[in-house]
């Protein structure tokens, strides 16, 4: 066995991460193929997965092979189309038939089930990728486009849940266990699917991405930063007790001016990509070969179930939930799905056998046998298991729901992806639909009768308490995945429950983030920004917010859409533990003061100057008066990219004149598409600049400049 020479303590867990996620980019230490075996894994799954001996051998062989790299073209629709065509027409012809060190190297392959050819698989040894002249060039292209956010590395199976969720721009979406955010990014792209390369049309819908791990919410924020969205929020709560969110009371004609009660917010789409034992990632996390134990999955069942049940109670009628894991274990998959269907009425599994057709899959299991202990003791029924515990008196670790249900629930509609089917990791997906009641709901309007069984907060609490009790016999005291092979923490999760309660009641419990506060629409700074950029009268000034309790525009101004505004104004930020909301659009320029329009002529009435941020520009652009945008060309862009603060005199006459006529401060420039001296701009590029007395600077970050 090959071991690294690293001394000192081993990394905690399979990946050192609190959970397993196919997209966590850490791999275990290398392991020889001959060491890739685990008798328990073999014995447990050989009979569970309903595949014959030969196929099981192929399954294991593929598990011993490294996982191919996969990536998704993820920019706006136009960028994606341009890049796909570049890959197909420019790179693929050069990468076909390449031989490296006498080995034929396969060309990149479009994943046949991913819509519009936007996802690719690369089965190339690292050495060839870095050293073969053909692949080296392609590698640089991938690295560059990944840096600027047009390409996202993501495991093939991890791309599936968002596809099955089918998010539209008007949907209200919750991603319950979202960090580090690969699927969140995909959901965000769907929410913004109608946006073009230059302008974001603010989607009417909403995406809340949540994770209970505070540190990991920062990964989530970082990962989603390349698609700034006024329709996006990040929260940091335990998904199994995700608080009911409210919308403000409406003053409608029907209520004849009377204030109605706040209404609970129901979701159209919910993703439950729950923490799991992660043995489907064995090709990448080879340490699983050494540490695998069925108790890892047994211990997570209760938490997974509570997260799914909570999602079901927050879904509107007609809405969809995708439940997914990267585990092969039926106890974490079909057993959770079955118990959720049994306990929350009104739901069914969607038959997705005709969706994403080229995807090779296996149906969900209807029979399985849970196993207990390090020596894999199997029990046909829960009763037998209970009887085995010191004459029936021991503490139960497994619940009845670990075993298959007695009733027919359509579990074969679940999807199992095995590594050997199409050279991927292992994965599990179930798509739930909340059945509509016979009183058909009207599209886009959520009325009381459309609400699922449980918008009643009091009832939800009772159910949650029951679930917490159930968790006490089955669940590790932490909500994170146990280290594979580690003994389960079998004590009651009383502390966990107390912590959750504190969190639910908004107690001060370590939540130190600043609140978002809406700025008065007539605030002089907002007014000044509006005047400076000639913003159209319909610019949503009432959706501008800042991050401090006083609502003081001291540093940054953020913009949300109406729905995010509604959620922020009707819910205590501490109760829902808001990490971010909306998009940063303007930022105070240090040392800059401007005279307020209509103020005293002598300049006595001044306000701090704010500049437009590049990440906020696509959101603000539709409101900017086109007349104030400075049109220029590629040589100007080149000069601005090459030099940090080029003097005005360094530019062509026209640009010098146009900029020279403007006051110093923040401005917007459009670089027209076209080609000059071998440089080609395939589309117009609109970017912010800062003009000082004698120089101009492009206000984008270093990475983007590169
Ligand atoms: C499988 S990972 C999610 C991967 C993510 N969906 C993606 O695509 O990048 C599971 C996540 O659940 C989080 N988690 C664990 N317990 C949780 C809980 N009770 N509530 C919310 N999140 C939880 C973990 O911190 C982890 O980030």
UniProtKB/TrEMBL annotation:
PANTHER family: NCL1 YEAST -RELATED NOL1/NOP2/FMU SUN DOMAIN-CONTAINING, RNA CYTOSINE-C(5)-METHYLTRANSFERASE NSUN2-RELATED
SUPFAM superfamilies: S-adenosyl-L-methionine-dependent methyltransferases (SSF53335)
Coiled-coil parts of chain: none
Biased composition range(s): Basic residues: 1-14
Residue numbers binding S-adenosyl-L-methionine: 177-183, 211, 238, 273
Entry's Gene Ontology molecular function annotations: tRNA (cytidine-5-)-methyltransferase activity; tRNA binding
Pfam families reported for this sequence: Methyltr_RsmB-F, Pre-PUA_NSUN2, PUA_NSUN2
Source organism phylogeny: Eukaryota, Fungi, Dikarya, Basidiomycota, Agaricomycotina
GO terms under cellular component: cytoplasm; nucleus
UniProt KW keywords: Methyltransferase, Nucleus, RNA-binding, S-adenosyl-L-methionine, Transferase, tRNA processing, tRNA-binding
Span of domain SAM-dependent MTase RsmB/NOP-type: 59-435
Species this chain originates from: Russula ochroleuca
Catalytic site: 326 (nucleophile)
Feature: compositional bias, Basic and acidic residues: 23-37, 442-462
Gene3D superfamilies referenced in this protein's UniProt entry, alphabetically: Vaccinia Virus protein VP39
InterPro entries: MeTrfase_RsmB-F_NOP2_cat, MeTrfase_RsmB-F_NOP2_dom, Pre-PUA_NSUN2, PUA_NSUN2, RCMT, RCMT_NCL1, RsmB/NOL1/NOP2-like_CS, SAM-dependent_MTases_sf
Family (UniProt): Belongs to the class I-like SAM-binding methyltransferase superfamily. RsmB/NOP family.
Stored PROSITE patterns: NOL1_NOP2_SUN, SAM_MT_RSMB_NOP
One of the GO BP terms on file: tRNA methylation
Region ranges (Disordered): 1-37, 439-506
Compartment list: Nucleus
UniProt main location, coarse: nucleus
Protein name, UniProt field: S-adenosyl-L-methionine-dependent methyltransferase
